[in-house]
What does this fold into?
Amino acid sequence: MSCLAMPGASSEHEDRRPESKGTLAVCIAGVLYVLFLAANIFDMHGDVGIKYVGFALLIPLALYRREGPKLSAGEILGFVGLFVIWPFIAFMMGVFNGADAATAKTATTPFLAVFAALLAVPALGAERGAKYFNYAILMFSCAVAILTILLFTGQISILPALVTRYLEGTAATGSLISPYPFAREDSMLRERVLLAATLWLVPASVYFSATRRWIWSALCLSGLIFAVSKAGIAVALGFLLITLVWNRKGRIFGLGAVAIGIAGGLFFFPYVLEDVRSAFSSDSDQMALRQGHASSVMTLMSKHPLYLLVGQGAGTEFYSTGTHNWESRMEVDHVDAVRQYGLFWFLIFSWLCGRTAVRLIRSGEPEKKANGWALASMYVVGGTNPALMTPLFMFYLAVCYLLSRQPHGPTSATASSAEGVPIANLDIQRA
It folds into this structure.
C-alpha cells in the first residue's frame, strides 16, 4: 500500500481542473454537485432514499471530464487495494464469520464514495468542490437553526407536509425531533433537532474559522449546541482554539464571533456546557457505554489474535458489556474499524487521512490549510460516533486528497474567474 505515498511525485500527474467548456456547463455541474451534497447531508444513511438519487446526479459530472482525474498508476492501485479489494475481503470474511450478507454489504459500500469523488469532482476543480462541500454544511446548519427557532416559538406546524414527514423519520430512525435528555425544569427547550450529519458541523466550523469567515463559523458552532452534540462541541472548541492561535489576523474578531455563537446556543440550551463536561466524566452513562464497547472488543481480540491484524469481518457482531447485547456497530468508530477491517487496514487508512491533512496544512494556501484542519477535526470527532466509515467522510477525504495534489499558485477559483465563470464573493466576512 506504500504506493499511496506518490501524490505530487511529478507535475504531469497534478490534478488541474480542465479548461472550462462554458459558463452554463460549469453552472449545471455546480448545481448537480450541491444537490448531491444536500441529499447526502439530509439523508446521510439513506433512510429516505434521496441519498442514492444524489449519487446518480454525479454521473453527468463524471462524464463531463472523460479523461478522469490524473492519478498515477500507483495511486490508482493504492486506492483500489485500500477501498475495493480489502473491503471485499472483509465482506467475505464477515459472511464466513456469520454476518448477514446485507449488513456486510452496507458496511463496505461507503468506500465506493471515494471513487465517486475522484471521478466527479474534477469537473468543478478540487478547491471549488471542497468549498461547496463546506457551504453545503453551512446550509445544513441554517436548517438546524431555523428548526430550533420554530420549536422554541411553537410554530413547527407551519412547515410543509413534506418537511414534516421527513422530521417524523422512519421506523428505523424514529423522529428526528427528540426529547433533550438533560433538560431541567427551567429549560427553555425540552426538544432538539438531531440529524445524522450533525457532527459535520465540526469541520465546517473549523474550516470557516481557519479562513476567517467568523460569522459562518459561529453559526456552525451554534448548530452543534442546538443539536446538543456534546462530543461535537468539545472537539469543535478544541480545534477552533487551535485555528484562533494559528490565525493572528482577526483573532479578536474571531474570539468575539465564537463567543456570540456559544451565547446563541446557550440561549436555548443554557446547561449544555455542563452536560458536555459531565458526558466526559468517568461516571457518565455514555462513557460507560463506550468503555464497555472498547473492553469487549479487546476481549474479542485476545481470544482471536488474528482479528487484530485482519479484522473480524464486515458486518459481524460482537457481544458488548456496554449494552449487554450483540452489536454490529459501536459509537467508537476508530475501534470498530479495527474490529471489522483489522489494524493493518486501519493504519494505512489513518496514514492516508493524516498525510492528506498535513499536506494541506503545510501548503501555505488559506483554502488548503482550512480544509486540512477540517479533515483532521472530522477524523477525530468521527470516531466518537459512527460517522467515520460513512460515504460522506470517504467523499470528503477524496476531495481533500485531490486538493492536496493541486500545484501551488493561482487557485482554481481564481482561474475560473479569469475564464469568465461567475463566482460568488464568499469572503465578505473575513476580518
Summary: The first strand starts at residue 177 and ends at 179.
